Amino acid sequence: MTDTIRHVFFDLDHTLWDFEKNSGLTFDFIFKKHNVGIGLPEFLEVYEPINFKYWKLYREERIDKPNLRYGRLKDAFDALHFEVSDNLIHNLSEDYIKHLGDYNHLFDGTEDILKYLQDKYTLHIITNGFEEIQEKKMTTSNIRHYFKTVTNSEMVGVKKPNPKIFNFALDLANAKTHESIMIGDNLEADIQGAANVGMKTILFDYTKKYDNASYDKINKLSALAQYL
């Protein structure tokens, strides 16, 4: 693999940037700010699968960004039978986006593997996350300088796994498919999407939920050194 690869593309959330940890810290902050009297662990247990469901709908172009931001909170509070006004939901939604990038927790080994790879390859990001916050996440966590290009779904008008976003990212990076590899945590969006345009792939299966996946996969970022 190392004989042909020149460009390494990463997903950001759930791959390098520890989304769940940073998201939990953000909710803790905004719940205290708005005096939301609900237990954080109880809320997150319900919210996280709902958020995953809404992101799938968003990825499939079945809902827009405002409906994602509102609906995931509304459904979580409803599931917990916790009454909140629409106005509070909108305020929480805005503050969540405003402060999410304030936190900088990365997965173990992120900086070490990026330092290792930057001397051998050109590094890039392809993300479905909201454009206004992804740059802030990378800057706050001090990893932005590792990446030559950052492709965001809002720049392209489609989301992974749509082939258009991968082709856009390849063109932006001046990279060929046969010399490029995609690393991400989502089997459908990152891995199958990249494979469909001819890129090599490595699945970051840190939750070990893809036991039957036929793609190359790792459970820790440090294991990338075995492939690259």
From TrEMBL:
GO terms for molecular function: 5'-nucleotidase activity. It comes from the Bacteria. Gene3D superfamilies: HAD superfamily/HAD-like, Putative phosphatase, domain 2. InterPro entries: HAD-like_sf, HAD-SF_hydro_IA, HAD-SF_hydro_IA_YjjG/PynA, HAD_2, HAD_sf, PGP-like_dom2, Pyrimidine_5'-ntase_YjjG. Keywords: Hydrolase. Its EC number is 3.1.3.5. It is an enzyme of class 3 (hydrolase). This is YjjG family noncanonical pyrimidine nucleotidase. It comes from Winogradskyella maritima. The lineage of its organism: Bacteria, Pseudomonadati, Bacteroidota, Flavobacteriia, Flavobacteriales.
